[in-house]
Amino acid sequence: MPGLNSKNYTRLFNVYRLLANVDILYDENCKSFSIKHGQLLNSTDVFSNQHTDTEIFAFPGLINSHDHLEFNLFPLLARHTYGDYKEWASDIHQYYKKEIKQILNLPLPLRVGWGILKNILNGITTIVHHGGYHRLINQFNYPVFLHYQYIHSISYEKNWKLKLNYPWFQKDVMVHIGEGTSPEMTAEIDNLIKWNLFKRNLIGIHAIQILPKHAKHFKAIIWCPDSNIYLYGKGPVIDKVKHLTTIVFGTDSNLSASSNMWQQVRVARGLGMLSDEELFYALTRNPKQVFKLNHRQTSGNWVIAKRTHTDLPLSFYSLNPEDILLVIVNYKVVLADAAYIACIDQGLFQPIRVGRAVKWLPLQWSQLVSELEQLNVSLPLNVSSLRHIPPR
C-alpha cells in the first residue's frame, strides 16, 4: 500500500470519491464498495449520502489461467483446422517460417513484457504463465503465477513419465493434454492418468477429448475455447464434466486466439456450457481455489469498467479493452482511463492509445510500446503510443 504522504492521500481520496457506491458484479456480501487509503470498504459505512454511479461498475480482478507470455506478438497462425497440436505445430513451422522467425528475433523481454501488458489491458490482474523465463517474468513486478510443475505435453516433454513421478515433487502438475480431436488425444489422457502413479494433482490444459470418466482424475481443466475452436473446430464438452472437476478459463496466446479476451469470453458464453455466473467464477473464484491464491494475493485486485446496461452481467459480457477504466492491483492503480487520471501520479504514468481510448499506465509499459513501435512491430488490440495515433 502506498505511503500516505499528502500527494498519495489526495490520489487515494480521488479514487475513493470517484468510486464511492459502485455496484459489484456477483458480490454476495455487499452491493457496492469504495476505496479509502488503499483499503476496500463497504460503501454503506461511509459517504452514505452519495448516489450509486450508474455509469460504471466493479468486479474482482480477473485471473487468466493459461497464457504463454512470450508468444503474444504473433499473428494467428493456422491454414485450416487440425487433428491435434502435433499436426498444427508441424504445419506452421513448414508454412510460416518467415512470420515465426520475425517474432522470435525480437528481444525476449519485449515479447514477455507485451504478453503481460496484453493481460493488463484486458483487466486481468493475475496471469498463469505456462512455460519458462520465470526470472525474467519476475522482473516485471506483476502478479504472474509460476508455482507449479511444468510439463509441456506427453509428446513434446522428454522423460515425462519420470518427471510426473518424482516422489519429492509436491507441486501441482500443469500439462497440455488431449489437445485435438484425433483418437490419439483420447489415448493421451488415458496414458497420463495411467502413469500418474503417485496420484499427483493434475491440471489439464485444453483436454478437448476429456470424458466424464477422466474428469475425476483432474484437479482442474483449463478451458481455452477460442483457441480450441480456431485450431481444432471444437473444444471439450465442459457441461458434461463441470460437476466432476473444476473449470477455469484461459486465453492461450495470440498464436491461436484473439488478443481481446472479452471476445474469447463471448465465444465461451455463446457455447452455453456454463451459466453466466459459472463463467464469471471460472475467471475469478475457481482459479483462486485451484492455484491456492490467498486473500493477501487477491483482495486488493479490482477492475472498474464502463457500464453499458442496467443488467450487470450483460455489461460484463459486453466489455472490450477500451471499456476498462481502472485496474487496481494490490490496492495500487496500474491502469487508468483518461477520465480517471486524478487517481494516479502523472509523473509516474504515461498514456497510450487502445483503439479510440486513452489509457495511462506506469512508465515501463508506455516505454515498451514505444520500443516495439521503433522495431515496426504491429501491435495487437490496436495499441499505439500517442505519437502514433491511428486514424479515426
The radius of gyration over CA amounts to 21 Å
**Approximate shape:** globular
| Residue share in helix | 25-40%
- By CATH, the superfamily of the domain at 63-290 comes out as Metal-dependent hydrolases
User: Strand count, sense and closure of the main sheet?
Assistant: 7 strands, antiparallel
Question: Order of strands in the sheet with the most strands?
Answer: 4-13-14-15-17-16-18
Number of strands: 18
> What is the CATH T-level topology of the domain at 63-290?
TIM Barrel
CATH class of the domain at 63-290: Alpha Beta
Total count of helical runs of at least 4 residues? 16
Low-confidence stretches: 28-33, 35-51, 388-392
User: Whole-Å distance between the termini?
Assistant: 39 Å
Please tell me the overall pLDDT.
Answer: 89
CATH architecture descriptor text of the domain at 63-290:
Alpha-Beta Barrel
**In terms of structural class, how would the helical and strand content be classed?**
alpha/beta
Strand residues, percent: 15-25%
